[in-house]
Write a structure and sequence with these properties.
Layout: H1 2-7, H2 9-41, H3 46-60, H4 64-78, H5 90-121, H6 124-132, H7 137-152, H8 154-167, H9 179-189, H10 193-222
Helix pairs in contact: 2-3, 2-5, 2-9, 3-5, 4-5, 5-7, 5-8, 6-7, 8-10, 9-10
């Protein structure tokens, strides 16, 4: 196993760095999009609630592989929608960015449901007090409800982002050079399947364990007193 690590050390670091980038960028956009969809799900406007519900229903029940492949082959290759400028690495750059789009759209549905459960924990009287002060729905959500909701769902959000780290391996389906793609290549070239599996299992443990510990600490630090 150590021989394999020394032989592929640079490529292993590069592959896991791509995995980290996919996770961080996708988590950022999924958090934003998931918050917007959660706001739609609790909106007083029926059309907004319907659209939010439809979004969650569709993307939670659609395989992530299908979403990412559709983004790359459908939107990029077939329709020619490009997210990166022309250049020697434009295909790899576009696939990387479309992978982020697919991961973000998919993960946002789970962020939304986690956040909606947090919104439901906020006492109704606090929202009513905000409305009695003349706050609009958006102001009430931004100033009163969401700050408490986020504190209540820090641990569940941590689980969502850990799952996102592992889901990033699906990006290998469109040729993004992250950990899973390198693992497949090493498996084809090396007769050491158990060692290769152990290397990448350890790599993902190193990535996900600190995330779980960090969100666990945040949850204890900022938990809402009941």
């Amino acid at each position: 196993m150590f021989d394999l690590i020394s032989e592929y050390d640079d490529r292993l670091l590069d592959a896991f760095w791509v995995t980290i980038q996919l996770t961080l960028y996708s988590a950022f956009w999924a958090l934003i999009l998931g918050t917007l969809v959660a706001a739609m799900r609790v909106s007083p406007v029926p059309v907004a609630r319907w659209l939010g519900t439809a979004y969650v229903t569709v993307f939670r029940n659609t395989p992530l592989t299908l979403i990412i492949v559709f983004c790359s082959l459908g939107l990029y290759s077939t329709l020619g929608l490009k997210l990166a400028p022309e250049g020697p690495t434009d295909i790899a750059d576009n696939n990387f960015r479309w992978a982020i789009v697919g991961l973000s759209i998919y993960t946002a549905a789970f962020v939304c449901e986690s956040l909606r459960s947090g919104i439901n924990t906020v006492q109704l009287g606090q929202s009513e007090a905000g409305r009695s002060l003349g706050l609009t729905f958006t102001q009430n959500l931004r100033l009163i409800v969401l700050p408490q909701a986020f504190r209540a769902v820090i641990a569940p959000l941590g689980s969502v982002f850990i799952a996102l780290t592992k889901n990033s391996t699906i990006a290998a389906a469109i040729g993004v050079g992250e950990a899973a793609l390198l693992m497949a290549e090493m498996t084809e070239n090396e007769a050491a399947l158990l060692s290769i599996g152990a290397i990448f299992a350890l790599g993902f443990v190193v990535l996900t364990l600190p995330t779980g510990l960090f969100f666990g600490w945040l949850a204890k630090r900022y938990e809402v007193a009941r």
